[in-house]
């Protein structure tokens, strides 16, 4: 993050005015980044192993809501934000292009919606999902009971 006190973009200046301050919670930035990540073709899921397991369990609970910030960690300051995202990519997608697309979409969404300057978006690819694995994960566990 920039340490230059003279730095102030027009959008971040709007967060502090003579009429008051606007504080944007980490969870808000994480949710925006998570939604922006899921919008990119080639992202199978967001989060590493543990986050995905918890998300899968939550999905089985009737009425449970999707956690859009799953797999996203943020650090939010007064004018800037840094974002870390973990993903599972679809097999066959160029990972460097996928990361660039995610990065562009996340920066655009967060800066437009919050007025914060996004200083970095770090992306970790935890896994690549094969279509056979995806189909097996969606099939119900069939058991015969006698």
Present the secondary structure layout:
Layout: H1 10-13, E1 16-17, E2 20-21, H2 26-38, E3 43-46, H3 49-59, E4 72-76, E5 80-90, H4 95-114, E6 117-129, H5 131-138
Parallel strand pairs: 5-6
Antiparallel strand pairs: 1-2, 3-5, 4-5
Helix pairs in contact: 2-4
Mean pLDDT comes to: 81
CATH topology of the domain at 32-60 and 69-134: Alpha-Beta Plaits
Overall 3D geometry? globular
CATH architecture of the domain at 32-60 and 69-134: 2-Layer Sandwich
General description of the model:
By secondary structure, this protein is α+β, with helices and mostly antiparallel strands. The protein has a domain at 32-60 and 69-134: Cation efflux protein, cytoplasmic domain (Alpha-Beta Plaits). It contains five helices and six strands. It has helices spanning 10-13, 26-38, 49-59, 95-114, 131-138, and strands spanning 16-17, 20-21, 43-46, 72-76, 80-90, 117-129. Strands 3, 4, 5 and 6 form a four-stranded mixed β-sheet that branches. The protein has a two-stranded antiparallel ribbon with strand order 1-2. Strand 5 (80-90), helix 4 and strand 6 form a beta-alpha-beta unit. Helix 2 crosses helix 4. The longest helix is centred in the C-terminal third of the chain and has 20 residues, at 95-114. The chain is globular, with a radius of gyration of 18 Å. The termini are far apart. Residues 1-12 have low confidence and may be disordered.
